[in-house]
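Hi U.,

Before I forget, here's the chain from the pilot set. I'm dumping it here mostly so it's searchable later in email.
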Amino acid sequence: MNKLSLLILPLMILFVSCSSATNVGGMKNYEVKMSLEDKSGKFLVVREGGMAKNSKNVVSKYRVYSIDGVGQKVLEQSIAFSTPGILKKSVRLLRPEKSQYKVWFDGQLYQTETSLDRNSKSLVIEMKSPEKQWNGKKSFPFPGGNGVFCYFTQLVECIKYTGFIEKAIKSKAGKMNFHIIWDGYPYIQEQYLNLENDPFAAAVLEYDGQTNEKDFRFSLSISGSVIFYLFNESYDYAKIFWPAQGYSLYHR
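Structure:
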């Protein structure tokens, strides 16, 4: 399997906001197109999400397309569900429920799904792929008790729902500790160096000032790496930069 560089793409495609009807906790339904650039070229990203129909879940979907001059081909796609809740009667949060991630390499499908086992307080991961080591089910206990957990592909909405982004921007300071769930596990561990072979990762998101373009910058520290998220004055996601990887994501 020699094309794992494609797996970086969904991890850069975090939640964005656009004008639409406001839902639970200020959530917005949206559909938006974005451009992603990296050292290998340019890609089209289509994101959509909001409150799922006939459900109390927040759902996010995305697709990454190649742009080769002949046509557009889906390189990967994902869907994640989380349920609005309350932590310790004061903090709003989104509780991860389930996710599915797919990527194609040389026409072959690699898939991973997550779900919750509430009885054992564990995350169940089911893998399907052409390779023996990436098949079957595994169970991982949740670390650190009842804290905030966010799917990585749903990170921005997950954090915004707690109210942290707005409060940090207004006070020009703030730091939040939480755990990320790599909903692309185990493929992300094959892509990045220095990531533990675990679907969970401790993370810190911190307010990092305002740019010359008046965007508000936040830094995410995770596994020895830093990713920058920029928000506009409406607290909507504007851009993302991952300097160590040479990636940028922005509106078309």
